[in-house]
């Protein structure tokens, strides 16, 4: 009981320090008092959810702030991701992970580790942000989401310090929320051995240094395997296999083999010890996928029916490969539309609207 009163007192002081307005303070204080009385029945998490976690700028690791709304992810992928049949399987992968979080009888045995591969501009970062938006109320801005960048965060100058800082940062995030999301981007530019630092967090352990990582998610993003995915896709086309008929097993061996000798994955135990659960190939985009992508960008900016001239102008920046003799796939996907389409919209505005 004394422990409970102490927590109540600390929360009240925190409210005063945060200078919460009078009405909110009175409401939350009443909630605290009521929850304190009932604390013996409902437990501290319930008290916290109904008091401190109601503050506007507070983010807690509960269902309100971590809703895990995978129906939202399914809609986002169907409406905003084009030509990526295997990427849509992320929904099923995450649903399986979520169900093991909620069901005490089938707990996760390890963290979920997903590796996204493909050319630049095919939607890898976009997919990662969609996952964050679905799981966390604040999306990528959540304090339970952390993105590391290849060269920026791991420049190879002081590897030991980088590894210690990496461990400390991830430990802090996951200890505050077991369902945290850790993203490593630009692994093709990362120093080898960095990923081996987090190997214990990805493996089949109940806890590492007292922290349970089994309900967390790790996402790796890289351009590694992009050319090989494109070549393999062409070979599948030659065999009569359609784009929407491809399976993970068509790409995983070549992705694993290429990754093991490249960038941050070089000789990494994450690959050698099979700690990556899913290798997701992002297929190179064809012309009709790029057109769908451009149209979606126009509509997101309020232009529901761009003219033919506007579409031609938008698509003029796209080049196709893998060679001049095979102009099948867009070399940079949809990446350049983010800046080019706003320019096109401005360019074709009537003069009086300028």
UniProtKB/TrEMBL annotation:
Q: Which GO terms describe its cellular component?
A: cytoplasm; endomembrane system
SUPFAM superfamilies, A to Z? P-loop containing nucleoside triphosphate hydrolases
Q: Where is the Torsin-1A C-terminal domain?
A: 285-338
Gene Ontology BP term (one):
cellular response to misfolded protein
InterPro entries (alphabetical):
ClpA/B (IPR001270), P-loop_NTPase (IPR027417), TOR1A_C (IPR049337), Torsin (IPR010448)
* A Pfam family it matches: TOR1A_C
Gene Ontology molecular function, alphabetical: ATP binding; ATP hydrolysis activity
Q: Cross-referenced Gene3D superfamilies, in alphabetical order?
A: P-loop containing nucleotide triphosphate hydrolases
- What does the sequence similarity comment in the record state about its family? Belongs to the ClpA/ClpB family. Torsin subfamily.
Name of this protein: Torsin-1B
Gene (UniProt): LOC106117038
